[in-house]
């Protein structure tokens, strides 16, 4: 197929090291343009690539086939519906928006426009994680099964993401929470409710019920002085013992797989991918329940 011209919105470290790097290296996707609210930051992202720096968001949208967003949730919730309304396919970060109502409007706009969407759930595009999910017993787990999710890192103690205002405000819940919830949801069956939740400073803990009766517990913090990251998704009980402890070191690799499938979906007109905006909305409904339960 012809090259898929993609525009990138955002100029932070994730935009530069993951989105821009992977799109620029992709054999079919083309990094055609970059826009950020600070033109000098957009120029820094575009330097050394084939991308044009755009002077406005609308100018970028008019020049591309698809738009990838690497911006805070509030900004994505504001801008992504405009790209969708213009008929552009979208690569979205999680959470979809700063609040559930805006996320619902964005997901509905994607559906109404009939465009392809993909949420950057990088773990779901990792080969080893996919092999683990595929190895699990079919069907929702029953009440004789429990799940465990853990993610502890020092990401907000220092490094490129320590200065992120939205991450600092919400901690692990909105940053890595969607990844953990997504994998437990895939492993045990769809989450049907949040039983309890607690936030003690930077530590989030909560429990969930799944459609077949299984229950899971999650513990997460991005302010633990530990390196490397401590990560585990586990499923124990009547279906046996299934544990995942690996996660990709280089996020551009699973992001490249996301692009492979995104490009193929655009070519085929498939809008119901497993990590579409609808999936992002499902996960955001759960994180909103967690936040409400934690008070």
UniProtKB/TrEMBL annotation:
Gene Ontology molecular function: any one = nucleotide binding
InterPro entries reported in the protein's UniProt record? Gfo/Idh/MocA-like_OxRdtase_N, Gfo/Idh/MocA_oxidrdct_glycsds, NAD(P)-bd_dom_sf
* Keyword field: Oxidoreductase
What SUPFAM superfamilies does this protein's entry cite?
Answer: Glyceraldehyde-3-phosphate dehydrogenase-like, C-terminal domain (SSF55347), NAD(P)-binding Rossmann-fold domains (SSF51735)
Name the domain of life this protein comes from. Bacteria
Residues in Gfo/Idh/MocA-like oxidoreductase N-terminal domain copies:
4-118
Where are the membrane-spanning stretches?
Answer: none
UniProt key word Oxidoreductase: yes
Kindly provide the name given to this protein in its UniProt entry.
Dehydrogenase
State the species of origin: Pseudonocardia sulfidoxydans NBRC 16205
């Amino acid at each position: 197929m012809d090259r898929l011209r993609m525009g990138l919105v955002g100029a932070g470290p994730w935009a530069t090291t993951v989105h821009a790097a992977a799109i620029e290296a992709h054999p079919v996707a083309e990094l055609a343009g970059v826009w950020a609210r600070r033109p000098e930051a957009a120029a820094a992202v575009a330097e050394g690539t084939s991308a044009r720096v755009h002077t406005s968001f609308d100018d970028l949208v008019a020049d591309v086939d698809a738009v990838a967003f690497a911006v805070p949730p509030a900004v994505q919730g504001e801008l992504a519906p405009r790209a969708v309304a213009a008929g552009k396919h979208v690569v979205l970060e999680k959470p979809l928006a700063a609040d559930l109502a805006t996320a619902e409007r964005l997901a509905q706009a994607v559906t109404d426009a009939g465009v392809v969407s993909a949420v950057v759930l990088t773990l779901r595009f990792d080969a080893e994680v996919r092999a683990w999910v595929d190895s699990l017993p079919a069907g929702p787990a029953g009440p004789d099964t429990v799940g465990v999710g853990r993610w502890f890192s020092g990401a907000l103690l220092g490094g490129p993401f320590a200065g992120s205002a939205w991450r600092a405000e919400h901690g692990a819940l909105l940053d890595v929470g969607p990844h953990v919830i997504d994998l437990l949801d895939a492993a045990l069956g769809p989450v049907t409710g949040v039983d309890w939740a607690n936030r003690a400073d930077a530590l989030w803990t909560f429990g969930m019920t799944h459609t077949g009766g299984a229950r899971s517990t999650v513990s997460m913090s991005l302010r633990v002085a530990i390196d490397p990251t401590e990560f585990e998704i586990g499923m124990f009980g009547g279906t046996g013992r299934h544990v995942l402890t690996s996660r990709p070191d280089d996020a551009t690799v699973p992001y490249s797989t996301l692009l492979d499938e995104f490009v193929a979906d655009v070519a085929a007109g498939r809008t119901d991918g497993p990590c579409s905006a609808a999936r992002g909305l499902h996960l955001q409904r759960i994180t909103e329940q967690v936040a409400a339960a934690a008070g």
